[in-house]
Amino acid sequence: MESMDYLALSQLIEAYRDVDSASYLHGGTCGLLCAQKRLDFDFWAMKMLGDPYMDDELKEQFEKFVKEVFDSLNSPSLELDLMLPDEDEPIWIRADALGQWCTGFIFGMAEGGALTPEKMSGTLGEMMQDLTQIAQQTTNVEYDEDEIEDDESDLFEISEYVRVAVMTMNEELNPIAPKPIVETSEQVH
After folding, report:
1. Ranges of the chain with pLDDT below 70
2. Which of 31, 53, 107, 163 has the highest CB neighbour number within 10 Å of its CB?
3. Is residue 180 part of a domain?
4. Burial of 92 (0-12, 13-18, 19+ CB in 10 A)
């Protein structure tokens, strides 16, 4: 089965007026998973969609989405990709989506109970402050056509910072235990 992309998720959430965008939903799901590691589907549906009740087919699609997000967030090969519009969309649409993604992530972390002084001290607290600033500064920004190439580069760098920050926060809050090294009888000799 193919993994869900921005367009497919956008179509899936059309009926949910409480969800701003696919980017917001993806960010929020990442935030809840960072905060809680294991996530009850009904809790996720209530927090992110505003309604845990849906038909079986829709529930299966959303469960698949949450599992894909979990797998990418916890991948040892750093597979997390922020769910944002394609690069052929205008930069202001993609920047706005990045702001929505960060807003969703912050919401998910808060709803999952991770925004406590104990959990968000030091580097994690600084990263959350950065994400808050990115969420505030990437929405409704006007772009100068003469500087679009620089803006594209800046947006890429900011998106990459967000991706790495989220993976770092997840690793700090939910460390992936390394696989133990098992010695074989041949290694012992």
Report:
1. 1-2, 138-149, 177-189
2. 31
3. no
4. middle
